[in-house]
Amino acid sequence: MTALYRPFDVVAVAVGEGANAKRRPALVVSNPDFEKSTGLVWIAMITTADHERRFGDIPIADQAMAGLPSASVVRASKLTTLAVGKIRRRLGALGETDRLGARIALRAAAGFF
């Protein structure tokens, strides 16, 4: 199995099942070896910036590079694993400044990066 996604890729994922599934943006935080070995990807959800702020939220400065249409934040407090098949497509990737912010937020939220 060849890994399709890398850390800091922004992807569109299917949340829910069947006709009720909705597409939501997410940040890939796992490495390619994890994907190759398990068929899973570890992600942090991304939400619009107008939602109530939570611990670990970090604004995404470069929306265009990330492939996001509106102001958004990485929600480091909302991590999950997802089957690779739930990823619909790659939207973009975080730029260097946003990667640094995401690393800081993920370290603060998870405590082991």
**Average pLDDT value?**
90
The CATH architecture comes to Roll
How many E-type strands?
Answer: 6
Which CATH C-level class is it?
Answer: Mainly Beta
Strand content: 35-45%
Task: Provide the structure class.
Answer: alpha+beta
Overall geometry: globular
Question: Helical stretch count?
Answer: 3
Distance between the termini: 26 Å
Unreliable stretches: none
Largest sheet: 6 strands, antiparallel
CATH fold-level assignment: SH3 type barrels
Roughly how many Å is the radius of gyration?
Answer: 13 Å
Percentage of residues in helical conformation: 10-25%
Q: In sequence order, what are the helices and strands, one letter per element?
A: EEHEEHEEH
Q: Looking across the biggest beta sheet, what order are the strands in?
A: 4-5-3-2-1-6
Number of domains: 1
What features would you describe in this structure?
The chain is built from three helices and six strands; from the N terminus they run ββαββαββα. By secondary structure, it is of the alpha+beta class. It has a single domain (9-110), classed as SH3 type barrels, CATH 2.30.30. It has a six-stranded antiparallel beta sheet.
Task: Provide a short characterization of the protein structure.
This protein is an alpha+beta fold and 113 residues long. 23% of the residues lie in helices and 40% in strands.
